[in-house]
Structure formats: structure tokens, C-alpha cells
Design goal:
single chain; 113 residues; alpha+beta; two-stranded antiparallel ribbon; 5 helices; 4 strands
């Protein structure tokens, strides 16, 4: 279950673990954290999870020049909260052409963000 929390309280409890050089007010003052919730993420291989499945676009494309708006998305990872949502996303034209073959079920625990 997602829990609403103030950013200052999150930092106090878990520390600061996000990309540097983020635009002002990112992350926002009001955030939600997962507490051992199941989420789903696309993987490149159907039956295997590779370390590159967990790299964000900013890491995968270090020479790209990101705008302030793009860097927020590029520094994150897309996860979905239900199998239905990720399957629906897979059908979108922009996603359909990407090399994703599998779906991984993961648990997000605040201590490891």
C-alpha cells in the first residue's frame, strides 16, 4: 500500500537516494512511498532479468542532453501497480515497438530505494 509522506520526513527516515542535478522542486514536498508493495516492470528477456532492466534512460544514454522536464522522467524507472496496467501499457503504439519481452514482479521496500 502506498503511504503519503512529506519529503523531509522521508529523507529523515531513509536518507536521500535520487539522482543529482534534478530540477528545483523535484522530488516534490509531498511524496508516496511503497511499503513492500508488488509492482511490475518490463524486462528485455521473457524468462530472465538482466541488470540493464533496472537502468534508467539517463544512465543508458549519458551523452544525451536532457531538458529540465525530460530529466525528471529520464532519471526514474517505470513500474506499474497491477498486471492489467502493464499489459495495457504494452499495447500502446509507442511501447509496442520497444524490445520488452517479459514482465518482472517486484517488491518495493523503502529501505532499499
Amino acid at each position: 500500500m502506498l503511504k503519503d509522506i512529506k519529503l523531509k520526513d522521508y529523507v529523515k527516515e531513509y536518507g536521500e537516494h535520487w539522482a543529482d542535478e534534478m530540477p528545483e522542486n523535484c522530488p516534490p514536498e509531498e511524496v508516496c512511498i511503497a511499503e513492500n508493495d508488488a509492482f511490475y516492470r518490463f524486462t528485455k528477456k521473457e524468462d530472465e532479468i538482466d541488470a540493464r532492466d533496472w537502468l534508467n534512460h539517463r544512465t543508458l544514454y549519458p551523452n544525451r542532453k536532457w531538458t529540465k522536464e525530460e530529466i525528471i522522467l529520464a532519471a526514474g524507472l517505470s513500474v506499474f501497480d497491477t498486471p492489467e496496467r502493464i499489459l495495457k501499457e504494452r499495447k500502446l503504439p509507442g511501447v509496442k515497438r520497444l524490445p520488452w519481452k517479459g514482465i518482472a514482479k517486484i517488491s518495493l521496500i523503502p529501505e532499499y530505494y
